[in-house]
Amino acid sequence: MSTALEPRRFFLDRFALDERVLEDTIGTAIARKADFADLYFECRTSEAFVLEEGLVKKAAKNVSQGAGVRVVAGEKTGCAHTDDVSVETLRLASQTARTIADGSTAHAPVAVRAARPSHDLYALAQAPLTAALDEKIALLNAIDLAARAHDPRIVNVMASIGVEQKIVLIVNSAGAVVGDIQPLVRLNVTCIAEANGRREHGTAGGGGRVEFSFLSEGDRWRGWVKTAAEQALRNLTADDAPAGSMPVVLGPGWPGVLLHEAVGHGLEGDFNRKGTSAFSGRIGERVASPLCTVVDDGTIANRRGSLNCDDEGTPTGRTVLIENGILRGYLQDRLNARLMGVPLTGNGRRESYAHMTMPRMTNTFMLAGDSTPEEIIRSVQKGVYAVSFGGGQVDITSGKFVFSATEAYLIEDGKVTRPVKGATLIGNGPEAMTRVSMVGNDLKLDEGIGTCGKDGQSVPVGVGMPTIKIDAMTVGGTQA
Question: What's the CATH number for 5-236?
Fold first, then answer.
């Protein structure tokens, strides 16, 4: 599905363009003194289906398309975009972007040439958009029935399906033309449980760059329904979380969202070039426990955060950020890599043709260690075991974070005991990483639901980690 030639032909035919127009547009954009320019075409088709209160209340299809032109001169970036693509609007957009970037001297002409992404991470036999409407509606109805049948205390079910196909073409001033066809599927399930005047909810879901049939393989969706329902039911009888400083054990998989927020964003190149990250200027220094190795890998087949190439046409890669506790590198797009004098990592991303490119994560996770999850739990006399998280906030400059656990338990005398609600983890990312004393051998990636926000832009990402023990973390709760 992801050859370079297919997207190029698609856009040239769709907008009645030819390769000379591509060369002229880039040539106009970089005609004055500039370091780099690129042209980004996008056509996105998406479908959304939502079920609530036993009814499918939304079934929508959206098609958007357009092109963005970017010119980079020094630290300045000029961007312009249009959703009415033609020879004239491309020329105007390139002139506008060039003026914003402000250059002055002539630049050599540009000759474009097709290139293929070095990966083929989501070559699907059937694009998810081709699945029949009836199949999608039937799945939502089956989810509703299964959740309600799980327990009579499940009083409401909310389920949503998102299906997307994005075709992109990147043309840059180095003459490269790189295209990709990017599928995406996501299923979310929320169950509301009620008993004795108390209402609680549980959530689960998954997806990736996969065929629509992925959701039903091995009754995968039934597993997510069971997880959401049992989480809601468990919270009905949960005690109030304790408060104070105590050991915290994070479960495998989705709790990696804490790593993503508290550490990952601080390792993006723009924050570090500007000196605004808690990790700025610390390459080669110890920033975490020797047990911690953190990587960002955009090359894992069919994962939600994976890409054949980033939104600048650079192949994605596997970047070691922290190795045995030592900071090894940052995530880079073309602008920040050039200004910092370091190699590209394939992490230039944008929400759409109407947005600016910036360094972003793909799939970010901690590698497995040697301890078993059972050993880690047994090592804690009194603490909290956090299995799933909801929302959180992070200050990149200070590294401070606050996260709310949606599923958590007490650990008492080396055993997981009662479920607790209202647990909030409060800490500092770099500091928390130095307090990791045990790392499990059970690395797990999330199920494929992550969306990352930065500067008003959202992109799909993946997270993950093994079970880990943090010796001391502030837990906000209600018990004394």
Answer: 3.30.2290.10
